[in-house]
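Note to self: keep these together.
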Amino acid sequence: MMALGEYYVSVTGLLPKSVFSMPKFLYLASRAYQDILKAEGNVYSCMFTRDGVQHTITVWESKEAMRKFMGGKAHVNAVNSLKDVSRYAKIHGYFTDERPTATEAISEWKKDGKRVYGEPRVKCGDLTPVPCWQCKLFEQ
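Structure:
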């Protein structure tokens, strides 16, 4: 059996629904983030915006520590309100031997993340259908 990495990394990316949803989004995100900072097993956390996508990256001593945090009130409230405040959500978790940079974590998120809802977005690494000129010839 292959050994897992030393750390478990969780990456979330959301696109806010509108400027009007931002206050609620920021309130919920800040409450959850405060809990992350106090969570047992949390090694590193950051929140930032890149290309209009709101990201949270957390690094944990174990996947179990991350799961324990996920059951907390602030995180549950934030997850239950996701569709009220965002139009797109994508998540990714993975094991690694070294704490990744934000760029490395976002690259992993784009490549292997799971889109929870929302239309595919190229800037989020989602594959989008490319029109096929040969297909158009057959459709005629």
